[in-house]
Amino acid sequence: APAPDPDLAQQRAVVDAFFAAARDGDFDALVAVLHPDVVLRADGGTSRTRPTVVLRGAHNVAGQAVVATRLAPYVRPALINGAAGVVVPVHGKVFSVMGFTVVDGRIAAVDVLYDPERLAALDLTLLDG
C-alpha cells in the first residue's frame, strides 16, 4: 500500500473535495481528485443486499461515487486508522465507515466497511448526533 501524505489537513481537504464533487454530481471533479489507478474496496460482508466489491481506476470509482450521492448528507468526518476518513450514520445507525489513502494530493485508495455485523462490533461514538 502506498504511504499516505503525512499532512492530515491536506488529506482532509482532498477527502472533502471528493465528497463535494460527489454531492454536486460533478464527475470530472471526482476524476480529478482520484489517482488514475485508485482502488476502492467495499466490504459488505455476507449479506446479498450489500455485496463486497473491488473497483479499479478513477472513472470506475467516480462513477460509483456519483451513484452514492444519496448518502452525502449523512457523511461525517472521522479519523480512520490515523488518516482522513468518514463515518456515515443514517437515522442514528452507522451505515458505513470509509478510510482514504491520499498520496500526492489525490485519493489512491478507498476502503469501505459496510458489513452490518462488523459495524455493530465497532466502538464508535458520534459526537454530532
Shape: globular
The string of secondary-structure elements, in order, is HHEEHEEEEH
Quickly count the helices: 4
Counting helices, strands and paired strands, the structural category is alpha+beta
Task: Give the fraction of residues assigned to helices.
Answer: 25-40%
**Average pLDDT level:** 88
Task: Give, in spatial order, the strands making up the sheet with the most strands.
Answer: 2-1-6-5-4-3
Q: Report the span from N to C terminus.
A: 33 Å
Strand content: 35-45%
Largest sheet: 6 strands, mixed
Explain what you see:
The chain has 4 helices and 6 strands; from the N terminus they run ααββαββββα. It is an alpha+beta fold. A 6-stranded mixed beta sheet has the order 2-1-6-5-4-3. It is globular, with a radius of gyration of 14 Å.
